[in-house]
Amino acid sequence: MTPSTLDKLQTRFDPQAASGMDEVFQFHFSDAGSHYLVVKDGSLAVEEGEHDAPSVTLSMSTDTLKGVMNGEINGMTAFMTGKLKATGNVMLATRLGSLFPAD
């Protein structure tokens, strides 16, 4: 994940949508290594590497993440076509749009 992508996630984060949450989103990028997001009661921490116990793990390219986050790629379509793989609490992945709304 590039620094600009991380910056965009930080600026787009909606603390109200994360109220009461305590979840870890692990990302494995085919072209940028591993990162995880810790969303806890309205706060966001972005970390590089692997979390010991993520709530959900998502594997994809950074381009797929960008497309999903900006609305150019439907997340369910990406999942069904194999561009996005998810394990763990996969329903959490559907909350990414509300946690990081488009501009």
TrEMBL record:
Mention any Pfam family matching this sequence. Answer: SCP2
Which InterPro entries does this entry report, sorted A to Z? SCP2_sterol-bd_dom, SCP2_sterol-bd_dom_sf
The SCP2 domain covers: 15-100
Q: Which SUPFAM superfamilies match?
A: SCP-like
Please report the name of this protein according to its UniProt entry: SCP2 sterol-binding domain-containing protein
Q: Which organism is it from?
A: Halomonas flagellata
